[in-house]
Please model this.
Amino acid sequence: MSRRPAVGAALVAVALLLPLALAGTRYAHYVEHLAVQVMLMGLYAMAWDFLNGYVGMFSFGHAAFFGTGAYAVAILVVRGGVTSAPVLLLAALAASVVVGAVVGYLSARVGAVAIFLVTFACAEALYLLVLTDPRGLTNGDNGLAGVVPAPLLGVDLTQPGTFYYVALAVVVLGYRLLAAIARSQFGQVLLGIRENEVRVRFAGYHVEQYKTAAVAVSAFFAGLAGALTALHERIASPETLGWAVSGDAVLYATLGGTGTLLGPVLGAGIVVVAREVLSDLFRSWLIFVGATYIALVFFLPSGLFPVLLRERRR
Model:
């Protein structure tokens, strides 16, 4: 029997009990803040994994969707004075899906290698657009600070403990939705495209439309992660659209295991925590992360999470 449900339930249980275990300690708020980062980056990496692991489209521009969600929220709050959390999230999701549909339309009509370049170019274009500060909306390279929402259904999102559980609920729901999409008929067609695109095309399916829709779905969840990150950090900065953030999604998913959805969350947890610990101990801490990543690619090419899912042999 597969261990996937058990591993997923264990991760959720640890996340639920973590604030209670740290209550009253001096590191409680810091660890909660770090855990929220892990969860939101995990959701972001899950969105990338859906596109790469289930469709076979390697995107190196997912920061376009993540940053769109963050800036949509920030512009509405800082420039428009909108504080309604449902309105902010709906606007961020709509903007991300529109960007995803455009990027998907372009990506679906090029080869596998060109997808890498098209997605990267789209993300860089948005990054440069933000830096130019069109009509004073984005505040250039200074970013937009002061992203504070109004209560959501009576829930104060400015409270760290409350936001922690909201983020956890969103991540769990996001995983369930992505898993359901992957098991649906739409998801099975996407898997067929990943395995043999020519055969799926000859079966009568419009491959380009399915690919475009897949990118839009991935952009939806990546934009949700970006919007929540802007609310969590209280700022949207141009770095959210940079190539490094796109690379983070690739790193998290590859480290945890592509095509698993839960693996990217594990990878995000490892990298985010290692980044916090090693950056305090070493000035050139990225060397250790890079060396570890290279070693994993050679010795565990399928990632860490599949190791946890190995079934017991009789």
Notes: Residues 4-308 form one domain.
